Every structure is written in C-alpha cells, then in structure tokens.
Fold:
Amino acid sequence: MIKAVVFDLDNTLYDYDACNKKAEEQLFDEISETFGIRVSDAMGLLKQAKQNIKNQLGDCVAASHNRLLYMQNICEQAGKNPLLYAMKFYDVYWNAMLENMRLYDYVEPLFQELRDRDIKIGILTDLTAHIQYRKIARLGLTERVDYLVTSEEAGAEKPSEKMFSLMLGKMGVRPEEALMIGDSMTKDIDGARRAGMKAFCLEKPEKDISYILEVMQSWNNIGKDVLHGSKIIK
Structure:
C-alpha cells in the first residue's frame, strides 16, 4: 500500500525551463546594460561561468548550481568587482524566476487527493535548500508538503540512493510504500527504483493528470515498479 508520494520539484511541479529562459533574458539585459557589453557577450559569460564552477566543484554537489557563484564568476571574467555587482545580478535572476513560476494544473487536485487519503507528501530536489524553500513558498505549497530533502542536505544529487534513503527515513515508510513522481528517467525514476520505490515518469504534466488520478484509484494493483505516462515500463 502506498503511504507516501515524493515529488521532484523543477519541471515536475512547474515549468522550470520556461521560467529559467525568462529569468536569463532579464539577467542578460541587466549584465549588458551594467557592463556596457552586448547581450550575446553576457550570454557567453554565463555559459563560461557555469562551466568554470562545475570544473571547480564537480557536477554532483548542490553548490555547483549556486547562481551567486555564477554571478561572481561572471564579474571576475569581466574584470569587475563581484562585491559590487554579483548580488544585484543574482537578485535580478531569481526575482524574475520566482515571478514567472506557476503550478502545473495537475498539482492542486493531486495534492488534495493525497491529503484526502492521508498520504504523506515530500519533495526531493537537487540544488540548495534556501532557493528551493523560496520556490515552494512561491508556489503556495508550504503548508501542503510534509517533507523536503535537497541535494545540499544529502551531500549528493539524484540519482544517488543517499537522497532517496534520507527521504524515506524522514517519512518513516518502507521503500515499497513510497511512490516517486518526476520528469527525469535518469535522476528521478532510476534513483527511485534502485531505492526500492515505485515511480511515475511525468512526460507531459499538463496532460497526465487524468492518468495519475486513475492510477491512484488502484494503488494496490500496481504490478510494475515504473509508470511512464500512459504506459507501464517493464
């Protein structure tokens, strides 16, 4: 019997890609105006900054995604004092990101269904805790989510079993009693399966609600451990 459902956050509960695109557009305009450079050059600075930070820290730690480190590196590449500009750029990006975030339509009815069934709700997400807390608040989910595990807390990113085990421990459920819902087969689904959980891969969140709710009508009849859109993955 399913006693807990764990959700990925970005591109699972809202459209991260669209929000990130809008936020980066505003960021590039701000960098261009502040430093007197072309927007295309600002884009190049961010691309290089991401690579520089990942080269420095590796690609499997939360800090490698820290936008403030990106902004600091952008300033350093441009020969500017990051103490004067990095936080400004950071705020421009995140203010635009948060402003554009909207829940997918499936989220509220699904969360309500889970509440009605007394099923625990968790969010398992990469990135730093601070910004993920802000996203959850912006989406209006603070009082609807029972547990949160970030890669910063776990010291590893999905699909590391450390993250899934930490969440299961917090929720107090066995792996077979938990369902993972996410958009990434590699990070969310494979990680959950290795941890012994059931998993649902959300391909098109705006269209999958009817199928998710249908699945929920027969939790105890799920014979496979992975559900993918309208198909069962063997």
Summary: The two ends are 20 Å apart (CA to CA). The first helix runs from residue 16 to 35. The mean pLDDT is 89.
